[in-house]
Design goal:
This protein is mainly alpha-helical and 356 residues long. It has one domain (2-52, 68-156, 167-284). It contains 14 helices and two strands; from the N terminus they run αααααββααααααααα. The protein is globular and about 60 Å long.
Length: 356
């Protein structure tokens, strides 16, 4: 909004700073974080009053979690309000990539809100049926993938190689939709401990802030041997807004959490990361940067598949962060060690830009 206003005025005086992605990215972090910190206390109070007993806690989970009863959920609303306000304020709203990423974030956020609302009102941890939720997620993902591929095509670029790609044709649409939906649910599965999902999302957003900035710049893209995507650089501001909103939420979600993110936030953020990766044509790099989310989701798939086949469990409890809790690791230890892993993976993902 401010960019279009400044452009209409001819970028006079101090408004000339709005030309630069670096300035608008920094402003987006600050704006989103400030909004989150301001609205956070009132939102937490409102949700605590309206939800009463808060998010239902699983009886079969770690016993230490029972002390969290009464903690409100749907904290993703704080993230989404901060993120959308900041993004709409600082981004170039004529860029179709912007609207594609905003759409998937909003769409997945609404689906997550429906799930959270169902859990709270019915006092059950089950929520909306898995089939219904997946159907809605794939509908949203399909719309977004068609919007993005209309500009970037259906090539799947391979990391570690200079502009080497495979044209998947129609299969790319399926791959991209599964990627977006998969990462939405992977972040959702990771969000099981105070602060566990929030910081890795911030690190992934930081890594992709760098990636989309470089892919959107023709000189940098040519130098690094990566695909140049005109207009993708604008998503650096979107990534920055995710970081700012995430940092503000982490202020309240740090152990002991005053509020839980809920599906409202985790689905939205995971879907957003997937859409950003598809836009930047760094889909495979997302598996590195978001490797923690991949492992969390894989642990659930492995546990369920093996149990159905043999009647035995691979892990003491899935997702895998609960497995470590059952081994005796304190919650704070699990969270901080997973944070360290997310930092390493983000750096590894960025390293693929140069190792070609």
């Amino acid at each position: 909004m401010l960019y279009l206003l400044a452009e209409w005025l001819g970028f006079p005086g101090p408004l000339n700073l709005v030309r630069y992605l670096s300035f608008r990215s920094g402003a987006a972090i600050a704006t989103a974080m400030l909004i989150g910190l301001v609205i956070g206390p009132r939102l937490i109070l409102m949700l605590r009053v309206r939800q009463g007993k808060g998010q239902p806690i699983r009886e079969d989970g770690p016993q230490t979690h029972l002390a969290k009863r009464g903690t409100p959920t749907m904290g993703g609303l704080m993230i989404l309000v901060s993120l959308f306000t900041s993004a709409l304020l600082w981004m170039d709203l004529t860029n179709s990539f912007v609207w594609a990423c905003l759409f998937v974030t909003f769409g997945f956020g609404v689906i997550g809100f429906m799930d959270d609302y169902d859990k709270v009102t019915k006092r059950s941890h089950k929520g909306v049926s898995g089939r219904t939720r997946l159907l809605l997620e794939f509908i949203v993902a399909a719309i977004v993938v068609f919007l993005i591929t209309d500009r970037v095509g259906t090539d799947l670029y391979l990391p570690f190689f200079n502009e080497v790609s495979i044209d998947l044709g129609p299969l790319y649409y399926v791959f991209a939709m599964v990627l977006i939906v998969g990462f939405g649910n992977a972040v959702n599965l990771t969000d099981g401990l105070d602060g566990l999902a929030t910081f890795p999302v911030i690190m992934a957003a930081l890594a992709f802030l760098v990636i989309v900035y470089l892919t959107g710049n023709a000189k940098f893209a040519d130098y690094l041997g990566i695909a140049h995507i005109p207009g993708a650089g604008e998503l650096a501001i979107f990534c920055a807004a995710i970081m700012g909103a995430g940092l503000a939420f982490l202020w309240f979600n740090a152990p002991p959490a005053a509020i839980f993110m809920g599906d409202t936030g985790s689905l939205a953020l995971g879907g957003a990361l997937g859409a950003i990766a598809v836009t930047a044509q760094h889909e495979l790099v997302l598996f590195v940067v978001g490797g923690l989310f991949v492992v969390e989701a894989a642990s659930v798939i492995i546990q369920v598949a093996w149990y159905k086949r043999t009647g035995k469990r691979v892990f003491r409890m899935a997702p895998i962060h609960h497995h470590f809790e059952q081994l005796g690791w304190p919650e704070s230890q699990v969270v901080i060690r997973f944070w360290i892993i997310s930092i390493v993976l983000a750096l590894a993902g960025l390293a693929t830009l140069k190792l070609r």
